[in-house]
Specification:
Blueprint lengths: L1 H22 L9 H10 L2 H31 L4 H21 L12 H21 L4 E2 L4 H5 L13 E3 L4 E3 L4 E3 L4 E3 L4 E3 L4 E3 L4 H32 L2 H9 L9 H11 L1 H29 L4 H32 L4 H17 L1
Antiparallel strand pairs: 1-5, 2-3, 4-5, 6-7
Length: about 350
């Protein structure tokens, strides 16, 4: 029973943490509890609270040690999330293999699914390795000429050619210096902690393939478990037994709550794993669709943040301009200044909200 509750907690908490990690810092969640949770867990809030507690308990030595650990985990390349991914992949496969392979073949499941599942997991692992260890498009003195002419400067978020003071090379349009990896990357999208690598021009295809394949892998695992459970219900005549117990003929649709109760009693691991895979697939599908959208409109995650900052700057400039004009108008016409000021301020507020 303890194992079941642990699996319930695992299946419920992990998708939430994944969603907060992947989406909590998006502009659409600004000011919400998701953004605050993301900041607390993944953007330093948790570390700051822990560092304060350690300082109170162990003094300056403990605080310095905590700072060093935080710097390694948050500001330097490290394999922590890679190992976490491998534990999720390996743990999920082991849970399914140890509890469900014995039911293959079944009424609705063929023998070849024993080998198809292993092959699917290996393909996912291969895409993970390709994304993690493929050059994302590092810019240095050797590759600079190839990248400098790839994309034009747009005069807005990439106004003019600039030199990277860290790498000592000219920074091509759409590139960015990654402070974690300490290198410039062509068509920089984001730094992915799960891959311990930047996502850029050369490995974006592998990253997208990784996301799409893992969505398919989760769906495949959920459908396979569903087919196994349905075969067990039919093979053990569960519906007939329930109908006999209640003294009237019934269909699966009529007695599905009792069937679900029976499955949770005897096949709880399979049911919870199926729910877990479906939840994770939804999160990964949303993340994959977002990146597919970015590819279709020919932009990157980094550029969406740049455009958001640029639009905020434009709104601030327009707001200040309107306020200056309203003050000037109020000074020229004192009798109507208060009215002009109220109208201009209202327009400015609406402009800032847009």
């Amino acid at each position: 029973m303890t194992g079941q509750w642990l699996l319930i907690g695992y299946a419920g908490l992990l998708p939430f943490l994944l969603f907060v990690l992947l989406c909590g810092d998006r502009p659409s969640f600004e000011g919400t509890c998701l953004e605050r949770t993301h900041h607390f867990i993944f953007a330093g809030g948790c570390c700051e609270s822990l560092q304060y507690l350690i300082f109170k308990l162990f003094g300056e030595i403990g605080s310095r040690t905590c700072s060093s650990v935080e710097q390694y985990l948050c500001d330097r390349p490290n394999p922590i999330l890679q190992l976490f991914y491998l534990s999720i992949l390996g743990g999920s496969y082991f849970a399914i293999a140890s509890t469900s392979l014995q039911y293959i073949p079944g009424i609705y499941v063929s023998e070849w699914h024993k080998y198809a599942g292993q092959a699917a997991v290996l393909v996912g692992l291969l895409l993970f390795l390709l994304t993690s260890f493929t050059d994302p498009g590092v810019i240095n003195s050797t590759t600079l000429q190839k990248h400098i002419s790839s994309f034009p400067y747009d005069g807005v978020i990439y106004g003019e050619k600039k030199d990277c003071s860290t790498c000592n090379v000219s920074r091509p349009a759409r590139s960015k210096h990654c402070s974690i990896c300490d290198r410039c990357v062509a068509r920089f999208d984001h730094h992915c902690g799960w891959m311990n690598n930047c996502i850029g021009e050369k490995n974006l295809r592998y990253f997208l393939s990784f996301l799409i394949w893992h969505v398919i892998l989760c769906w495949y695992g959920a459908v396979l478990l569903g087919a196994i459970l349905l075969g067990e219900v039919e093979g053990r005549n569960v519906v007939r037994a329930i109908s006999y117990y209640y003294g009237s003929p019934s269909t699966l649709r009529e007695v599905y709550p009792h069937v679900l109760q029976w499955l949770l009693t005897f096949y709880s691991t399979q049911v919870l794993m199926m729910v877990f895979l479906l939840v994770v697939s939804i999160l990964l599908a949303g993340f994959a669709l977002y990146h597919i959208y970015l590819v279709v409109v020919n932009t990157t995650t980094n550029e969406t943040y740049k455009w958001d900052a640029f639009q905020r700057w434009q709104a601030d400039v327009a707001w200040k301009k309107i306020l200056d004009e309203s003050r000037k108008a109020a000074a020229d016409r004192p009798e109507s200044g208060e009215k002009v000021s109220h109208v201009s301020t209202s327009v400015a507020i609406v402009l800032r909200l847009d």
